[in-house]
Design a protein that fits this description.
The chain contains 1 helix and 4 strands, in the order ββαββ. It has 2 domains: 30 residues, no CATH class; 66 residues, no CATH class. It is α+β, with helices and mostly antiparallel strands. 11% of the residues lie in helices and 14% in strands.
C-alpha cells in the first residue's frame, strides 16, 4: 500500500491552521469507478426534466347537459344554446370532438431519480 500523504487542517472561522499535519484517510486513495460516476450523472440529468400533463379542466369547459332518454340520440352531454354550429354537439366525452382525453397524463408523478449520496 502506498503511503498516505499528510494534509493541513484549517479553522473554518479564522482560516488559521489548527494542527500542523494529519494523515489523509485511506478512503480518499480508492480509485474512482467510472460506472458509478456515469450512473449518478445520468440520474441527476433526469432531474432537470419538466413535468408534463394536461389541465384537469381540459375538455370540460362547456355548459353542456344531457338530453336524457327518449330522443333517439346518445345520452352524451350536448352543448346548449342556439345560433351556432356548436349547439347540440356532444361534449365532455373522450369520444366527442373537443372532449377530454381518456386517462389524461397527470403531472403529480414524481419523475425524480434517486441515488445514494455516498
Amino acid at each position: 500500500m502506498s503511503s498516505r500523504p499528510f494534509v493541513t487542517i484549517y479553522d473554518g472561522i479564522t482560516g488559521e491552521a489548527e494542527k500542523t499535519q494529519v494523515r489523509l484517510p485511506a478512503v480518499f486513495l480508492a480509485p474512482i469507478r467510472g460506472d458509478v460516476v456515469h450512473f449518478v450523472y445520468r440520474n441527476q440529468s433526469k432531474n432537470t426534466r419538466q413535468p408534463e400533463g394536461v389541465s384537469t379542466e381540459a375538455g370540460k369547459q362547456h355548459s353542456a347537459i344531457s338530453w336524457g332518454t327518449g330522443r333517439a340520440v346518445a345520452r352524451i352531454p350536448r352543448i346548449s344554446g342556439s345560433g351556432s354550429g356548436r349547439n347540440g354537439q356532444g361534449a365532455f366525452g373522450n369520444m366527442t370532438r373537443k372532449g377530454h382525453m381518456f386517462s389524461p397524463l397527470k403531472n403529480f408523478r414524481n419523475g425524480k431519480e434517486k441515488h445514494q449520496n455516498k
